[in-house]
Amino acid sequence: MLTSISEAKIGQWANEAQRLKARELREYVAPRRYALVLAALRDARGRVLDDMTAMLLKFSKKVVWISQQRLVESHVEASTETGTLIAVLRDYDKAGADRRR
After folding, report:
1. 76-95: per-residue pLDDT in tens?
2. Is the entire prediction scored with pTM above 0.85?
3. Nearest partner of 32 among 20, 43, 48, 47, judged by Cα
4. Are 33 and 25 contacting, i.e. CB atoms less than 8 angstroms apart?
5. How many domains in the chain?
6. Which of 33, 55, 95, 99 is most buried, by the most CB atoms less than 10 A from its CB?
7. Residue 101: is its pLDDT beyond 70?
8. Per the domain annotation, does 86 fall within a domain?
9. 2 part of a folded domain
10. What domain range is 40 assigned to?
């Protein structure tokens, strides 16, 4: 319904509607009152979408951070396991060399 109206005008109407109390808004003629309410709803919808986008970005950053932490932990565990295996193999080889002598 508001497609033919400029964004600036819709913004002005939304600001006006937000400043008014319900009692004051009822004093306007119906077409004007509906236009103000529609502009306020459109503005609120835009803010909600912006807030949801910000929340999604924050959540995504947290998922990336957790993934990076788990990757670091898995590298540490893998290097620890590798070090343990190398030490066991070294001890086993050393024990075998001592038996051969």
Report:
1. 777 777 878 888 888 877 77
2. no
3. 20
4. yes
5. 1
6. 33
7. no
8. yes
9. no
10. 7-100
Dist. CA 95–CA 98, nearest whole Å: 5
Summarize pLDDT for 28-81 with one digit per residue, the tens: 899 889 989 999 998 898 889 999 999 999 999 999 999 999 988 887 777 777
Q: Which residue has the tokens 């998922």?
A: 63
Structure tokens at 71: 């990757």
Question: What's the CA angle centered on 12, arms 56 and 57, to 5 degrees?
Answer: 5
DSSP 66-92: HHHHHHHHHHHHHHHHHHHHHHHHHHH
Q: With the C-alpha atoms ordered 77, 83, 89, 92, is the resulting torsion angle positive or negative?
A: negative
- Let me know if residue 26 belongs to a domain: yes
User: Does residue 31 fall inside a structural domain?
Assistant: yes
